[in-house]
Specification:
Blueprint (H helix, E strand, L loop, with lengths): L3 E6 L5 H14 L4 E6 L9 E3 L5 E3 L1 E3 L5 H9 L6 E4 L7 H12 L5 E6 L9 H9 L2 E4 L2 E2 L5 E2 L1 E5 L5 E2 L13 E4 L1 H6 L10
Parallel strand pairs: 1-7, 1-8, 2-5, 2-6, 6-7
Antiparallel strand pairs: 3-4, 9-10, 11-12, 11-13
The chain binds zinc ion (ZN).
Amino acid sequence: MAKLHFNYSAMNAGKSTALLQANHNYQERGMETLLFTAGIDDRAGKGVIKSRIGIETQAVAFEKTDDLAEITRARLANQSIGCVLIDEAQFLTRKQVRQLAELVDRDNIPVLAYGLRTDFRGETFEGSQYLLAWADEIREIKAICSCGKKATMNARVNANGEIERDGEQIEIGGNERYISFCRKCFFSADFISTESII
Ligand SMILES: [Zn+2]
């Protein structure tokens, strides 16, 4: 039986690397896969999944209005799909998480979604909220806070090293804008020296 998997973590925990490894494992067994990433995140180029350790691959860039089940079924006319993998899954809408659940339940295609659990305010993203609610399997990819504890939160830092507590949920930036913390450091910190941003 296919399952809907949600692999979540804080920033910089290696989600894209884990996704690309899982994709490689499917392909090594001769199975075709379909990869999606958020169109909104074009740091590596639109429709590119790039891991911080250097590997990258092409993916379908999804927008909020796309029907992911429809796109996948259209592909099935010309190819078999052993697995659907989603990067930046926090940017999915509630409706799109439903579409992924349908692919699992009706088409029997496993779906592996990778994304952040919470934003820089500590609030869940829409995609993460419904993946946490509806996934069959939920797994945490571990990241480490500078204090040594497990990092579960993402802080957004401005140019002066101050932690931002308000603003738009989505503001794409690389390592220079975000830092992952354990919950204790996340709630107590208000300033980060730029050297400690990794
Ligand atoms: Zn900490």
